[in-house]
């Protein structure tokens, strides 16, 4: 299961967004932006962030 779908199932799609979808950038920066923001989520509340964190093993 992808981390995006896992987060959706834990906190609801309306409560977490992939950070990359929330920032604007030029096409030439796509690779760099995916590297920086690719696995980052922005959650609506701290509680949602804590719920989603529990579902993943952190490095």
UniProtKB/TrEMBL annotation:
GO terms for biological process: chromosome organization. It holds the Pfam family SMC_hinge. Signal peptide: none annotated. Residues 4-51 form the SMC hinge domain. GO terms for molecular function: ATP binding. InterPro entries: SMC_hinge (IPR010935), SMC_hinge_sf (IPR036277). One of its GO terms (cellular component) is chromosome. This is SMCs flexible hinge.
């Amino acid at each position: 299961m992808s981390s995006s779908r896992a987060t959706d199932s834990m906190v609801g799609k309306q409560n977490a967004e992939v950070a990359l979808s929330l920032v604007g950038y030029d096409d030439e920066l796509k690779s760099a932006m995916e590297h920086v923001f690719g696995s980052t989520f922005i959650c609506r509340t701290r509680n949602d962030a804590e719920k989603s964190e529990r579902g993943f093993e952190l490095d």
